[in-house]
Every structure is written in structure tokens, then in C-alpha cells.
Write a sequence for this structure.
């Protein structure tokens, strides 16, 4: 069910979005304020003129004092070579120390009839300064017991996963193909504690 849509952010909710302090810098970018009950949701981003290109989709919790916690964010995209990677980000709030499972899914997408899925994704986790914290190619190579215990183990041995306890800060996940392979992949970030 479509819950809302926006093309140019100033066309609807202009005052409310501006008051958040995180309004887009271009009038052509989109934004919405939506109050959502607990559940699963999908945000779809596309070009207004059916063009292709790179975009950034962000989700901010504007009510950090509520007891509701954002538990999972994921995105599907095309992982190319060099800088054409899939990037997912997360912010751990002040005073928190949270544990996350991050996953790079490729081969399992075939069962959902996704064409050209990435056969062997590689997952990297970077801190806010771009420094590599950890990386994984095949999820059973390291942390297998911890990832399995989380209930979030990938279904294909060639998929990648990490489980990390992270202090306050900004983090980035990067998904690329092993051996410069390309294809469609899914990057997922789950908060488990």
C-alpha cells in the first residue's frame, strides 16, 4: 500500500521538513515526514524522468526518545567495479553501544527471480573516517557461531556477513564482488542488541 510519495521536497511538508534541520540541499530532491507504526516498510527511489543514476536514500528517526527502535535497513542495487559499489550507512547514537549484523546477499536473490545476482559478494565495514573495521567474503569463514546464533545467517555459503558491537559514531558498509565480479546484491543492516 502506498503510504506517501514526494517528487520535489518543497512541494509538500516544506515547513516541517525544514524544521528538522536535515532538509535536502536541492529543490529537486525528495523528502517526507511519515509516522509509522511498528512493521516492515519499503521505500522506492526513482528518477522523475525515468533516467538512471546514483542516488542516496536516507531514513532518520525524528523521535529518538520513543521506545521504538529502527531494527533493519536494507537496499538492493547493482555492485559494479572500482567505485561502483553498493554502500549502506548507519549511525549509532550518543551513549549507545549497539550490536549489528551486516549482510551482503547475492546468490539467494536467484530464488526471488532477480536477474544477474552477484555470485560472490564481499562485505566491508568502515568507520566514520573510512578506516576498515572488518571485512568478510564467505560468511562461514569467520564469526560463524555468532552469526548463526543471531538467527541471521545467510542461506548461501558465498554470501558475506559480519557481527560487530559498535560504539557511538558513523559507519559505512560496502558491497562489491569477489574478483571484480559484478551483479545485483542486497546490503542489510540489522540491529540485534
Amino acid at each position: 500500500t502506498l503510504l506517501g510519495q514526494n517528487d520535489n521536497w518543497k512541494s509538500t511538508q516544506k515547513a516541517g521538513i525544514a524544521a528538522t534541520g536535515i532538509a535536502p540541499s536541492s529543490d529537486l530532491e525528495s523528502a517526507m515526514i511519515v509516522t509509522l507504526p511498528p512493521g516492515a516498510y519499503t521505500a522506492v527511489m526513482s528518477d522523475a524522468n525515468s533516467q538512471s543514476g546514483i542516488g542516496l536514500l536516507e531514513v532518520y528517526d525524528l523521535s529518538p526518545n520513543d521506545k521504538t527502535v529502527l531494527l533493519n535497513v536494507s537496499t538492493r542495487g547493482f555492485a559494479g567495479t572500482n567505485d561502483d559499489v553498493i554502500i549502506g550507512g548507519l549511525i549509532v547514537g550518543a551513549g549507545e553501544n549497539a550490536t549489528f549484523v551486516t549482510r551482503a546477499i547475492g546468490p539467494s536473490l536467484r530464488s526471488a527471480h532477480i536477474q544477474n545476482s552477484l555470485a560472490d559478494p564481499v562485505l566491508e565495514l568502515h568507520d566514520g573516517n573510512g578506516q576498515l573495521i572488518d571485512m568478510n567474503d564467505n560468511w562461514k569463514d569467520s564469526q560463524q557461531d555468532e552469526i548463526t546464533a543471531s538467527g541471521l545467517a545467510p542461506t548461501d555459503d558465498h554470501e558475506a556477513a559480519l557481527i560487530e558491537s559498535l560504539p557511538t559514531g558513523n559507519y559505512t558498509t560496502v558491497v562489491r564482488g569477489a574478483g571484480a565480479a559484478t551483479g545485483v546484491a542486497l546490503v542489510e543492516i540489522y540491529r540485534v542488541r
Observations:
- The chain is about 5% helix and 35% strand.
- The radius of gyration is 17 Å.
- Helices lie at 14-19, 144-150.
